[in-house]
Amino acid sequence: MAEVSPSRQSAVTTSAPAAALLDSAGKVIGWSEAAESLLGYGASEIVNHPADAVLTPGAGLPRPGNGDWSGVSHIRHRAGHDLRLGIRMCKMAGVAGQENWLMTLFDPGEGALSGVNRSLLDGLLSHSPIGMAVMDTDLRYVWVNEALLQISGAADRLGRTISAVFPAEEAAAGEAKMSRVLETGVPLIDFEYCGPILSDPTGEHMYSASFFRLEDQLGEATGLCYLVIDVTERWRNRQRGLMLSRARECGKELDPVRTAQELAEICVPDFADLATIDLLEAVIQGSEVPSASARESVFMQHAGHKIADEVRAGSLPEIGEPAMYGPSSRVARCLTGRAGILESTLEATLSAWAEGAPGRVKMIDNCASHSSIMVPLGDGGTVFGIATFMRAKSSKPFTQDDLVFAEEFAANGSSSLAAAYRFTQERRISLALQRSLMPGRLSGDEAVEIAWRYFPASQKVGVGGDWVDAIPLSGARVALVVGDVVGHGVNAAAAMGRLRAAVHTLAAMDLPPDELLAHLDDFVMRLCEEQPGFKECTEGDSNLSGTFGASCLYAIYDPVARICSVARAGHPAPVIKQPDGTTFVPDVPAGSPLGIGSIPFESAEIPCPDGSVLAFFTDGLVEGRDDDIDEGVSRLRSVLGRAGASLDALCDEAVEVLLSRPLRDDAALLLARTASFSCADVATWEVPSDPAFVSEARALATRKLSQWGLSDLEFTTELIVSELVTNAIRYGSTPIQLRLIRHNVLTCEVIDGSSTSPRLRHARITDEGGRGLFLVAQASQRWGYRYMSSGKSIWVEQDLP
Questions:
Q1: What is the distance between the alpha carbons of residues 451 and 208, in angstroms, rounded to a whole number?
Q2: Which of 631, 650, 674 is the last residue of a domain?
Q3: What is the average pLDDT across 322-336?
Q4: Which of 208, 300, 395, 482 is the most exposed place for a label (fewest CB within 10 A)?
């Protein structure tokens, strides 16, 4: 069938269709004038003749089944040539109940418009601003209006399929959806696709197409109609609204540099072909941001960039690369003026960058950029940095409307930067506070060798309140402490400082681990009671910012007895490596977290031969995102099982194995390798309850000091031994022991079975006694007493000469 041009379409009218009436055997029993005009046969030449013998010799007419039928076939003209015509067969009731068939012949190109007033379409819709087209059941174009031709061109599309008019990739999606509409009859509304326009062949436009099926009076599909609307502006507004929303919601990690990178990625390629973000150094470091001044230079760092895939670039700047812009530079003027700058030439942008970051110019040597926008990033009165957007020559230059959008985007992105900056600032303050409250170094004296590590949580989580400690005690013992407060940030660091100070104070009282934790628990409870809303506090809505619910483990290692006493308040039990390399987790009663006050704390005594390694840690070390705490402890035990490794090496390996991921919580690790004193450094004597033994005790102590080469301390030591042994015999109870320990100091201990507390007092001139402890205190550097499971110990320390 010959194609009809658009000008010929409008001349087509709705004349009566060519029709013939057939009986049940296929014989022609009726013939219309339109059929005679179309095929050339007169009524006398075809009536009472088989239709297929005349119209389709050798092929035969399609035989309908029980229902109506339509299709396309070749019909013989009287002149001898074939015409490609559409055929529709409709069943009709004949005389005496016979079945007759009404055969209608039509141009298949007009089948989709059968029954439609073509002149009405031409008159009303040809000049409509909405692009329209009608297609037949084979998805060939039957009719198009001028608006559609203006949108996508291809004026010779009539009689052709969409795949024959447009590239296969573009046509495939449309044809699939059209076929679906023809098959199901369900319209498809607002199908969006991207394409060019004749007036802007290089630009990107978005269209909305709607498809619906055309049907005859019997409900049979006769074709398809589709409408096309240019929705570029709606699409662009939606895209830009989405960009603004993403700018407000980015920065979940609360890292200024990462947030800057996310902002750059949002803009490319939907708004720009290249985007760079530079931030003030103070914003990245979390320090105080100086106010923007037209008289001062601006110090910035490169924080993020994004380049479209099709744009070539030179050497990209490194994250953190510094840049300094003078007070008269475009960047400085943009920041101080708090307004964006639109540059219509590449040279202007290069000149602006060359003023403060000459190396940045190389990045866009090959970008072929032609226009740029520079906008400040800031929140309220605080300036964070600057964003620069560029477009390559393949894109449209920026306009004033683009500048307005860029400023709006910067305002939305600045809210995310503000949150990241505030968090970074708080993190910097928290770290500084925590470092000031954490021990500068830990020493176990001669009792233990110590190594420790502390790692704050990831930037997103914030600084927590984990801490470790080693506190020298009397009798050459050492206290080993690890704790974990609740929460993160400045409050957590302050809570850690409170608890660490309280532990040091209680440790100075030489309390056993379980008693110390009981006093610490009371301390936290008192803090809780001082806060408003105490009941809410105990129910979980804590106003104590970390102390309520904190965990703590307190251990005392005695190098003379080679025993470690451990108690814990809701804290993980330690891991112990024995000298033979085996590891185990001791059975230490868990206890409740601090502030709960419901379960008494209990201590466990663990034998620790020389060379044992005690590992104390917080749950952040062993409890990962995917691992439970038991698996983490198992991995720590495997690390500790290494033979011959130093404590520092074990710490580093444990960190490498257990912390190879962003931390959700702080992590602290304290390793202590035990040691004991040789018999030559410890002397112990049993003291009978006889005052006459006092002189013997002095003599024993003097001889031992002489053996140790400490003759310079003989006089003071005789005084100390005399007073302490006398008091134990006079006021104490048996058994009584005298012990001298030589380590970094000289310790003199007298142990007796009573629980009476010694009291230092100032005797009056007329008093005959009461000056003993006063003299002891004057002759020593430090003295004190501690209670034991049975009785007490009074100890005195003197510095070695």
A1: 68
A2: 674
A3: 79
A4: 208
